[in-house]
TrEMBL record:
Name recorded for this polypeptide: DUF402 domain-containing protein
Domain of life: Bacteria
Cross-referenced InterPro entries: DUF402, FomD-like_sf
Gene3D superfamilies: FomD-like (2.40.380.10)
DUF402 domain ranges (all copies): 111-185
Matches recorded under SUPFAM superfamilies: FomD-like
Length: 222
């Protein structure tokens, strides 16, 4: 399931100043988005670069249609991307859990009563080190507060993809195994009486929620 409805139009981000290296006080001004701080780093051939103990920059290709610059730290890649809906601009932060093969985010379009809840997508991950490609594999999990049961979605669409041959038997089996592993590792409490998720969100994600990330993304197709 893709949270971006047809009425939502992604728009490109910009990671550089208009005439050269931005300084620390530079504010990116975009008519669609208002003002956002520029990502701090060094100027190298027209692209910002920032590599230290906080992580390293990677390129993320999302569903073959969106390219974004993100930050890789341990087993998590975080990246921002933007879209418009009903004339309003939004920036969405997504996190790829490389070991789980799951992409998670707190949707900007969730209603107020679900603000802060998590949307988790099963994805195919192609990890090339400096670039990571993620492609949606239909099965989703909505995770709210620990005293609220999580909800699984789109198992019927996954079954349809298997039946039609869009997912071959090997890929389908791998996806189901990874979903079960994600649930057991992150969410299933078994006999625990404490109302907390065992390992969700992962610690690396909590750290990256407030990190300053590159504001650099673009559509690859019209």
């Amino acid at each position: 399931m893709d949270l971006v409805a047809p009425a939502i139009r992604p728009f490109p981000g910009v990671a550089t100043g208009p005439d050269g290296p931005p300084d620390a006080d530079y504010q990116l001004v975009d008519d669609a988005r208002g003002c956002r701080p520029i990502f701090p780093g060094s100027w190298q051939g027209g692209r910002m670069s920032h590599e230290d103990e906080t992580g390293r920059l990677v390129t993320v290709i999302r569903d073959g249609v969106l390219r974004a610059v993100g930050l890789r730290r341990g087993g998590v890649v975080a990246y921002d991307w933007g879209f418009e809906k009903d004339g309003r601009a939004y920036t969405q932060r997504s996190f790829v859990l490389l070991d789980d093969g799951v992409q998670i985010n707190q949707p900007a379009l969730f209603p107020a009563e679900q603000r802060g809840w998590w949307y988790c997508d099963l994805v195919a991950v192609a990890d090339h080190g400096d670039s990571v490609a993620v492609d949606d594999l239909l099965i989703d999990v909505i995770v709210g507060p620990p005293d609220h049961p999580y909800r699984m979605l789109d198992l019927d669409e996954y079954a349809d993809a298997m039946a039609s041959g869009r997912l071959d038997a090997v890929a389908a089996a791998d996806g189901l195994r990874r979903v079960q592993r994600f649930l057991d590792r992150r969410l299933n409490r078994r006999h625990d009486t404490t109302r907390t998720w065992p390992s969700f969100p992962p610690r690396e994600v909590a750290d990256l929620q407030t990190a300053v990330l590159p504001q650099d993304w673009e559509l690859l197709t019209s």
